[in-house]
What we know:
The chain is of the alpha/beta class and 262 residues long. The chain has helices spanning 5-24, 27-31, 43-46, 74-87, 98-101, 105-114, 130-138, 147-150, 154-163, 175-184, 204-209, 227-234, 245-248, 253-261, and strands at 53-58, 61-62, 66-67, 91-95, 120-123, 142-146, 167-172, 188-192, 218-221, 240-243. Helix 6 runs parallel beside helix 7 (130-138).
Amino acid sequence: MGxxxxxGKIGAHTLDRVAALKKxxxxxxxxxxPLYARQPLSLDAALHGDGPxxxxxxxxxxxxxxxxxxxxxxxxAAEIAHAYxxxxxxxxxxxxxxxxxxxxxxxLAAARAELPNTPLLMKDFMVDPYQFELARSIGADAVLLIxxxxxxxxxxxxxxARSLGLSVLIEAHDEAEAAAALAAGxxxxxxxxxxxxxxxxxxxxSKRIAPLLNGRTAVSESGLxxxxxxxxxxxxxxxxxxxxxxxxxxxYPAVALKTFLx
Length: 262
């Protein structure tokens, strides 16, 4: 993972984190969670409907911008998620990675307690099928798989996630990764405008990859600052739009979401 820059560092740290979690929270204990038995909701279905289908993100910190919002906690995450859902988010993404994003699985579990019927995406760096068991145990409906991080393991990880009933968002950043995402299997395709190696953002990435998506349900991620950005990308065929930083930097994230929806 050395050539992957920031993404490689996060991936290596995640491998260590998962190894520790397996010891303290073995799969058998995860399956004992009451949330494990619930039927996950469909992310794909949530991205079809009238108006912009926005996946609003709960993210308190980012490697590129530092602290977006102080006071990261399960209670704060649940409050923001509840406000997003009330305002009209199609789904909610919740960062659960602790080191670089100041997230935690408990944030998603707290949001699930507030929102039984809203699709929740566990936003983390998936490197081990164990994490899908963890996702089920905290009430996640969908997980993120990053092409650049998983490489030849992508299809196996996709199949593992889907075997547990989870929706999958496969994330690509360039044409080759988009081709790999499309070939991996049935999943929503995410096009990340942020280069996870350098953290630079360019909306031209989504525009460039749009013709390759062949009618698949696709989400544009990162760098979306206005309704105009969303309308331009919707015209190219994108069904969903993942927005985090600009909402979380607002004093009232749900009010910021409302301006994108109105």
